[in-house]
Amino acid sequence: MTMDPLARWRLVLGEAAEGALGNSLDAQGRGMDAALEWLYGREGDLAERDVRGRQGGQGPSALTVPDWINEVHTLFPKETIERLERDAVERYKIDEVVTRADVLSRVEPNETLLRAVLRTKHLMNPEVLAVARRIVEKVVRALMEKLSKEVRQTFSGVLDRRRRSPLKVARNFDFRRTLRENLDRYSPSERKVAIERASFFSRTRKYTERWQVILLVDQSGSMTSSVIHSAVTAACLWGLPGIQTHLIAFDTAVVDLTREVTDPVELLMKVQLGGGTDIQQAVAYGARLIEAPRRSIVVLITDFYEGGSPEMLVRRVKELCAQGTKVLGLAALEPDATPNYDRDLARRLVDVGAHVGAMTPGQLAAWIAEKVRA
Predict the structure, then answer these.
(1) CB-based contacts of 38: which residues, under 8 Å, 6+ apart?
(2) Could you tell me if 322 and 353 are in contact, meaning their C-beta atoms sit under 8 angstroms apart?
(3) Which of 3, 59, 105, 267 is least surrounded by Cβ atoms within 10 Å, i.e. has the fewest?
(4) Could you give the CA distance from residue 344 to residue 328 in angstroms, rounded to a whole number?
(5) Separation between Cα atoms, residue 270 and residue 302, nearest integer Å
(6) Using CA atoms, how far apart are residues 364 and 294, in angstroms rounded to an integer?
(7) What is the CATH number of domain 211-373?
(8) Which residues pair with 256 in a beta bridge?
(9) CA distance 317 to 311
(10) Is 236 within 8 Å of 147 (Cβ atoms)?
């Protein structure tokens, strides 16, 4: 990450340097300043030494510990993150999340806390890790309940209005036919139709052959939400008729997590976030898993900031598309689908046949289903 030298000095010196250095911080710089002030602004002995400590210019911070952890993982490079976390735990004793099970157990489980847990689980002792695991279970269960409904509806087929079904399923109810066939049982005095026999539509599956769905998930520090939602999405896809799911996590190494797909909690507890990114290596691994190219979908979930060879990545994606494999590039899996990715590299992948989008987990399932049915 490159930064203007004046902005660097402004971050080091704090608000005291505002007049001399001017307004040298952009939006990201102000976020970094607030995160640094949250931590280093509590230096207790500066006043005693008559030294004015660094001060952020944004007023009192309302960051919680989980919020702060997630902020620094978004704003700073890996080596800086490690230093900040170490200072927080060892120097300033901000250990609520990583060392105190009683505090962690009182925090309301949510995705923000889940991201913080995944980023700091390597610092936890066994007692705290057990509490953290229960938090992961609660949040994942809630995500599963929400997403599994969307996935089942998406892959359940479409109504065939020409055929009737003996299966009485509410969402297949044929209102018009039912009303038409029971009009002779209409009561003018009660203004009601007595239903003697209800009619239901049949459903026709749009896919009959097995498809492979290979999810390649970037597990670098900025992609935590994507890792969470990919694990849940893979678990929801697992076991669907006609769908064979693979889940691969990567940074500069590639880890096949397919065996853990049925237990997304265990999967997430094994993920190691952080490190560099070698996307082309992950694509090469995914390509080796393909059994039937024209019935395979490779979903590349990343910010497209390639630490390996962009040229090799473009070549590998081009080869997949040329053999009939559908390649989907997902730039964001945040709940609000806020895109943050290398648009130039994404555009190059689109030029060789890939499809790139930014969407929520539910939309991803619909996108996969659309490609299966095409």
Answers:
(1) 56, 61, 63, 68
(2) yes
(3) 59
(4) 16
(5) 19
(6) 20
(7) 3.40.50.410
(8) 248
(9) 10
(10) yes
Closest C-alpha to 165, from 179, 177, 180: 177
Long-range contacts for 59-64 (Cβ within 8 Å, ≥24 apart)?
Answer: 61/34, 61/37, 63/34, 63/35, 63/38
Whether the CB-CB separation of 303 and 281 falls below 8 Å is answered with no
Dihedrals φ, ψ of 215, to 5°?
-95, 115
Surface-to-core class of residue 350, CB atoms within 10 Å of its CB (0-12 exposed, 13-18 middle, 19+ buried): middle
Strand 243-250 versus strand 254-256 pairing type: antiparallel
* Residues belonging to the chain: 374
Spatial distance between the Cα atoms of 78 and 298, rounded to a whole number of angstroms: 28
Query: Per DSSP, what are the bridge partners of residue 218?
Result: 250
Predicted TM-score of the model (pTM): 0.66
Distance (Å) of CA 46 to CA 43, 50, 52, 53: 6, 6, 6, 6
3-state secondary structure the chain: CCCCHHHHHHHHHHHHHHHHHCCCCCHHHHHHHHHHHHHHCCCCCCCCCCCCCCCCCCCCCCCCHHHHHHHHHHHCCHHHHHHHHHHHHHHCCCCHHHHCHHHHHHCCCCHHHHHHHHHHHHHCCHHHHHHHHHHHHHHHHHHHHHHHHHHHHHHCCEEEEEEECCCCCHHHECHHHHHHHCHHHEECCCCEECCCCCCEEEEECCCCCCEEEEEEEECCHHHHHHHHHHHHHHHHHCCCCCEEEEEEEECCCEEECHHHCCCHHHHHHHCCCCCCCCHHHHHHHHHHHCCCHHHEEEEEECCCCCCCCHHHHHHHHHHHHHCCCEEEEECCCCCCCCCCCCHHHHHHHHHCCCEEECCCHHHHHHHHHHHHHC
Q: At what angle do helices 310-322 and 343-351 cross, to 10 degrees?
A: 30
Alpha-carbon span 371 to 295, nearest angstrom: 10
Q: And the tokens for 239? A: 């076991």
CA pair distance 174, 176, nearest whole angstrom: 6
Alpha-carbon distance 271 to 232, whole Å? 13
pLDDT one-digit tens code per residue, 239-270: 787 889 999 999 889 999 999 888 999 888 88
Domains of the chain, by residue range, sit at 5-135, 158-204, 211-373
